[in-house]
TrEMBL record:
It holds the Pfam family Palm_thioest. The lineage of its organism: Eukaryota, Viridiplantae, Streptophyta, Embryophyta, Tracheophyta. This is Alpha/Beta hydrolase fold. GO terms for molecular function: thiolester hydrolase activity. The keyword RNA-binding does not apply. PANTHER family: ALPHA_BETA-HYDROLASES SUPERFAMILY PROTEIN (PTHR11247:SF79), PALMITOYL-PROTEIN THIOESTERASE/DOLICHYLDIPHOSPHATASE 1 (PTHR11247). InterPro entries: AB_hydrolase_fold.
Length: 314
């Protein structure tokens, strides 16, 4: 082989190596914190950095509004809209990304997956203590100005327009014995879970079922998410506070309103139970149940197919 041939061969090898590097680039992730939290808090900043260090993938804590106050007082519909605009503006996420959600942040995460028109694709979604099927009581708050404001709002009609527009948890508070009001007046979760019979949206289901992996992590000592099985989409039957139904026993699952059954049948749902209180996760469990899904590296061909599939983000 002559000098020119060697050069061409060398160029071909370099091009091939560059192509391999492109394929193996780590997929970035965002972290969405829960209520009474903000990205500047050491707990949330350190958790995002821990995930980055362990996975080798770039991570970003996505802040909505001013953090703590807006986590309580901004309706989830608006929080999801802000998150959607932010991810569309982040060049790092333009080829697709993974999501880690904590507590209430999981409902914003699902809003990104289901509602975000024109947004980049989401590959893996890891949910830590997400109130996916709703909560039957408002989360414990404690003391402080925002908690006092929330307590005053809670004393009113939780399904009134005013409270729905000014108290984030009201958007996923689901009283089993008041389902008519919940379905008619709750402004977030019934839409997110495709619960309203004459308003089920196929696009939301298509987007949710396009996930590569859905990891649902329940905390055995959780006293914030009531019932804690809501983290797995389990809840009470309509009209009753007992028995507690598993996800697979709910109509959301059996009638496949959002595609949870479709994902589960495809082996893409991981129902994980860990020891500990609400979002208190030991490093060993983080390494075992979270990190592997942040190291998942879809090829450029998968990214292209996912990005162009309709109506993923139509």
């Amino acid at each position: 082989m002559g000098e020119k041939g060697l050069k061409r061969s060398g160029v071909a090898v370099v091009v091939a190596l560059l192509a391999m590097v492109h394929v193996s680039v780590s997929v970035p992730f965002i972290m969405l914190h829960g209520i009474s939290a903000q990205c500047s808090n050491a707990r949330d900043a350190n958790f995002t950095q821990l995930l980055t260090n362990l996975s080798g993938s770039p991570g970003f804590c996505l802040e909505i509004g001013n953090g703590v106050a807006d986590s309580w007082l901004m309706p989830l519909t608006r929080q999801a809209e802000i998150a959607c605009e932010k991810v569309k503006q982040m060049k790092e996420l333009s080829q697709g990304y993974n999501i880690v959600g904590r507590s209430q942040g999981n409902l914003v995460a699902r809003g990104l997956i289901e509602f975000c028109d024109g947004g980049p694709p989401v590959y893996n979604y890891i949910s830590l203590a997400g109130p996916h099927a709703g909560i039957s009581s408002v989360p414990m708050c404690g003391s402080g100005l925002f908690c006092k404001l929330a307590d005053e709002l809670i004393k009113g009609d939780i399904y009134s327009d005013f409270i729905q527009d000014h108290l984030a948890p009201s958007g996923y508070l689901k009283i089993p014995t008041d389902m008519t009001k919940y379905l008619g007046s709750s402004k977030y979760l019934p839409k997110l879970n495709n619960e309203i019979p004459d308003q089920r949206n196929q696009t939301y289901k298509d987007r949710f079922t396009s996930l590569h992996n859905l990891v649902l992590i329940k905390f055995q000592g959780d006293k914030v998410i009531v019932p804690k099985d809501s983290s797995w989409f389990g809840f009470y039957p309509d009209g009753e506070f007992e028995p507690l139904l598993s996800a697979q026993q709910t109509k959301l699952y059996t009638e496949d309103w959002i595609g949870l059954k479709t994902l589960d049948d495809a082996g893409k749902v991981k129902f994980v139970s860990v020891a500990g209180e609400h979002i208190r996760m030991v490093d060993e469990d983080v390494v075992k149940h979270v990190v592997p899904y942040l190291q998942d590296q879809p090829s450029s061909a998968q990214s292209f197919n996912r990005k162009t599939k309709q109506p993923l983000h139509a």
